[in-house]
Design goal:
The protein contains three helices and two strands. It has one domain. Helix 2 crosses helix 3. By secondary structure, it is α+β, with helices and mostly antiparallel strands. The chain has a two-stranded antiparallel sheet with strand order 1-2. The longest helix is centred in the last third of the chain and has 21 residues.
Length: about 110
């Protein structure tokens, strides 16, 4: 069921879900917020998508492998157009950011 918010920005609040306070070296607070849970879920979905689309022992690629290869080629052309000669240094970072935000939105 959908939750009705009192004001529009309430849906973006960071709320602590689990919190542990340890009296080691002062008081250390370990907490897991709603954004941390979203981040963990997104990272696991990204890794699962790339493991499922893995095409090591197959001769004919499946549709997930083809879509990941085409997205890598598209991001590579964008990075090469914007950065130039040093695109190999930044491509893995920008590729991982793309998939992180893509899966975070969906």
């Amino acid at each position: 069921m959908f939750r009705i918010f009192n004001y529009p920005i309430e849906q973006f609040e960071v709320k602590s879900l689990v919190s542990i306070i340890l009296p080691i070296l002062g008081y250390i607070n370990f907490s897991l917020s709603n954004l941390g849970v979203y981040t963990i879920i997104t990272v696991y979905l990204t890794i699962a998508l790339h493991i499922i689309a893995n095409n090591i022992n197959k001769l004919i690629p499946n549709y997930l492998s083809i879509s990941l290869d085409s997205s890598l080629a598209s991001i590579n052309s964008l990075v090469k157009a914007q950065i130039g000669a040093n695109n190999e240094n930044y491509l893995p970072f920008i590729y991982s950011l793309f998939f992180f935000f893509y899966l975070l939105i969906f």
